[in-house]
Write a structure and sequence with these properties.
With about 110 residues, the protein is mainly alpha-helical. It has two domains: about 60 residues, Arc Repressor Mutant, subunit A, CATH 1.10.10; about 35 residues. It has six helices and two strands, in the order H-H-H-E-E-H-H-H. A two-stranded antiparallel ribbon has the order 1-2. A hairpin with a 5-residue loop joins strand 1 and strand 2. Helix 1 crosses helix 3, helix 4 crosses helix 5 and helix 5 packs across helix 6. The longest helix is centred in the C-terminal third of the chain and has 13 residues. It holds the Pfam family HTH_28. GO terms for molecular function: sequence-specific DNA binding; transposase activity. InterPro entries: InsJ-like_HTH (IPR055247), Transposase_8 (IPR002514), Trp_repressor/repl_initiator (IPR010921). One of its GO terms (biological process) is DNA transposition. This is Transposase.
Length: about 110
């Protein structure tokens, strides 16, 4: 950030849920966390790391700094197969599958890996 990085900020930067998800998807698409953090002007790549952890843990950001935990539910084998099939047909879009079937991101991710 050069000399700009040393200047004192007078207020906290707030990122929208959409902006956070865009950054997260850039990491999922092959960029490093450091590259994305630097390109987006984040002061710490650990901030991006915490967003990724919340996102992959099935938590949904409210856009106000708070995170709501998406709860999973009990599923049958047939439901799991349907969810995995949906995720695979949609380029391993675990988040969409989790939202559509009302299960956690981590559950979908785990089932697809298995």
């Amino acid at each position: 950030m050069g000399q700009e990085g040393l200047k004192r900020k007078h207020r906290k930067t707030v990122y929208t849920t959409e902006t956070k998800e865009e950054m997260i998807h850039e990491v999922f698409n092959g960029q490093t966390q450091e590259e994305v953090a630097q390109a987006c002007g984040l002061s710490q790549d650990s901030l991006l790391s915490s967003w990724i952890k919340a996102y992959t843990g099935g938590k949904k950001s409210t856009g106000k700094g708070r995170v709501n935990r998406m709860k999973g539910r009990k599923t049958t084998l047939e439901e799991r197969l349907e969810i995995v099939d949906f995720a695979l047909r949609n380029d391993r879009d675990h988040q969409s599958a989790a939202e559509k079937y009302n299960v956690s991101y981590q559950q979908v991710y785990s089932w697809v890996q298995k």
